[in-house]
Specification:
Layout: H1 3-16, E1 20-21, H2 46-49, E2 59-67, E3 83-92, H3 97-111, E4 119-124, H4 134-143, E5 150-153, H5 155-158, E6 159-161, E7 166-177, E8 196-209, E9 215-228, H6 229-236, H7 249-258, H8 264-282, H9 291-309, H10 317-328, H11 334-373, E10 378-379, H12 381-391, H13 395-404, E11 408-409, H14 411-427, H15 442-462, E12 468-473, E13 478-483, H16 490-505, E14 510-516, H17 517-522, E15 536-542, E16 546-549, E17 563-573, E18 576-584
Helix pairs in contact: 3-4, 7-8, 7-10, 8-9, 8-11, 9-11, 10-11, 11-12, 12-14, 15-16
The structure holds serine.
């Protein structure tokens, strides 16, 4: 069965079970700088999981374009992907465990024809926050899974939350037995020997985890499920990797034909990163040196590096993208329309990269020669930093080149230097990273800081539910979307304006620290979701007033902002309000 057939079967099945098919949200969350990419089908649905009414009702289904970047460096093995498609169905306070499990079982065994013997499931074992999920287990038994293939695990395996704070709950995961022999007597779905492959996750979102770490009951009990399409396609086709399915095979074969080096990992990296880049560009992403743009830049540059390793002429890129569009257009017809832009963006970025490489490589060779002379086998952080700062050489490329020559690199020293560098440049009056890292100007930076003040002020006036769901900044105004069920009153708007202007008058200092997402949440920083690019996040603190996870940049003092005025408050979508505001001299 082809991927598109699985997708269509899924959507039809849930449609026939009373679900409305909703379109995939964009890979780049609409006007939301707090999340880099959509990482799960539930992400665009959070307001509705919290109780807002969805215009399409309480039963929804979709395919969602997702991108997860935490495993970007693992791509090349036989399973990791950055871009993938998640099929999902949701109950927003409608059905719960029994119906969800019965439908999943029916879909897998009847629609996809998977033999029951191939399926094992896991349920939550229980702890101080929530009891053992015997209900889910009973539902599985009733559906037809024998007791010996129902496993119980703790929070690490059978609890789902996006990030540290938000809707969460126990989950029950469905595993496919590949038929490989068990690796030991203890082998089970939690084992990563490869015998069991997770195919579907049914999450029962009934709690809310606060930033203090306590759990409260949500207004409604929801179901959120996610099924990875590429993986399911691979299993149903009896293939060993997603790269062997029709989603990648034509490009993989062409790469093999063109390559002068037989490097399977490089072929996978090229095919995967090309597809992911195409999907990001399709949804409006463009390469840059910050946040989303940096992820795209990294994907394209790694792809170009590996084409080099395969000794494939880079002039083949246009043909390879064309082939990829033809391969994927049945799934994403919109690719055809956008393909010239996609080619242009990728090829331009590749050209920039080639220039960077040419400049940096000479310096790199010098440093390698020097290290050899000194009998060292490690490239120190200073050198990596110099290559980065002066030649725009990304550290991962230095690592790659160094490794080819049998050298290790000291990334931790580089990271320290990088942090110092960021702090210094932030303190500089220009507010730009050296080397033109950030494509921002004074006005947009000011609006960015004003957005943080507005976000916090809204929470003070309306309550904690008034969370950001989107933001868009131009040199002329800020636009901010946030969850709130009703029109704001004149008094509330005035209060918000006054609070923001008060913070501007106090001329608060804006500071930035880097920390892990967990530390950020512990420090009480506002922000959404995990899967930021890289492990570390930046937290911007504005005096004693606001603390928020954000990519920056920001002004150094709020006094620089001018006078804040709200020009409009209107509805954005169901349960989401929109404010447009300006900063006046
Ligand atoms: N949110 C869950 C996941 O991403 C189920 O969709 O696995």
């Amino acid at each position: 069965m082809k991927a598109i057939e699985i997708r269509n079967k899924y959507l039809n099945f849930f449609k026939n079970h009373g679900h409305k098919v909703i379109p995939s949200s964009r890979l780049i969350p609409e006007n939301d700088p707090s999340v880099l990419f959509t990482t799960a089908g539930m992400q665009p649905l959070v307001p509705y999981l919290l109780g807002e009414k969805h215009p399409e009702g309480k039963r929804l289904t979709d395919y969602q374009k997702c991108l997860r970047t935490n495993d970007i460096d693992e791509v090349g093995d036989n399973r990791h992907l950055t871009y993938f498609e998640m099929l999902g169905n949701w109950s927003l306070g409608d059905y719960f465990k029994e119906e969800s499990i019965a439908m999943s079982f029916e879909f897998l065994t009847k629609e996809l024809g998977i033999p029951v013997e191939k399926l094992s499931v896991t349920c939550f074992a229980g702890d101080e926050d929530a009891p053992k999920d015997t209900t889910a287990a009973e539902c599985w038994k009733k559906a037809g899974i024998p007791e010996e293939r129902i496993y119980f695990y703790g929070k690490d395996d059978n609890w789902w939350i996006a990030g540290e704070e938000g809707p969460c709950g126990t989950d029950t995961e469905i595993f496919y037995d590949t038929g490989k022999p068990a690796c030991s007597d203890n082998c089970g779905p939690a084992c990563d020997c490869g015998k069991y492959v997770e195919i579907w996750n049914n999450v029962f979102l009934e709690y809310y985890k606060t930033k203090e770490g306590t759990y409260t009951q949500l207004k409604q009990r929801n179901v959120d499920t996610g099924l990875g399409l590429e993986r399911m396609t691979m299993l149903l086709q009896g293939k060993q990797t997603p790269f062997d399915t029709e989603l990648f095979a034509p490009v993989m074969e062409q790469l093999k034909k063109l390559a002068k080096e037989d490097r399977i990992e490089s072929r996978r990296i090229v095919a995967e990163h090309m597809r992911a880049s195409m999907m990001i560009i399709l949804d409006g992403g463009r390469p840059s040196n910050i946040d989303r743009g940096y992820v795209l830049r990294k994907l394209i540059r790694r792809m170009a590096r590996h084409l080099n390793k395969l000794q494939i002429d880079l002039s083949e890129l246009s043909n390879l993208i064309e082939l990829n569009v033809q391969t994927l257009k049945e799934m994403y017809p919109e690719l055809e329309e956008c393909k010239e832009t996609i080619k242009q963006v990728i090829i331009e970025e590749k050209d920039k990269f080639m220039k960077t490489l040419a400049h940096g490589e000479k310096e790199f060779e010098k440093q390698i020669a020097k290290a050899k002379q000194e009998n060292k086998n490690v490239i120190d952080g200073q050198t990596i930093f110099k290559l980065y700062e002066t030649y725009g050489f990304p550290p991962e490329i230095t690592a790659d080149l160094a490794e080819e020559q049998g050298f290790k690199i000291d990334l931790s020293e580089f990271e320290n230097l990088f942090k110092e560098h960021q702090q210094k440049s932030r303190m500089g009056s220009e507010q730009k990273f050296k080397g033109g890292l950030a494509e921002q100007n004074e006005k947009t930076i000011a609006y960015h800081t004003a957005t943080h003040l507005l976000h916090k002020a809204l929470q003070i006036v309306l309550g904690e539910h008034a969370k950001q769901s989107g933001s868009n900044i131009t040199v002329e105004r800020l636009r901010f979307d946030f969850s709130h069920p009703e029109k704001m009153t004149k008094e509330q708007l005035k209060q918000v304006e006054d609070i923001v202007n008060e913070q501007i008058a106090r001329d608060l200092t804006v500071t930035c620290e880097e920390m892990t997402l967990e530390e950020a949440k512990d420090s009480g920083a506002m922000g959404l979701f995990e899967n930021k690019y890289g492990e570390k996040v930046k937290v911007y603190t504005i005096g004693d007033f606001s603390k928020e996870i954000c990519g920056g940049p920001h002004v150094t003092h709020t006094g620089e902002l001018g006078h804040f005025r709200i020009k409009k408050e209107e509805s954005s979508s169901a349960g989401v309000r929109r404010i447009k505001a300006v900063l006046e001299e």
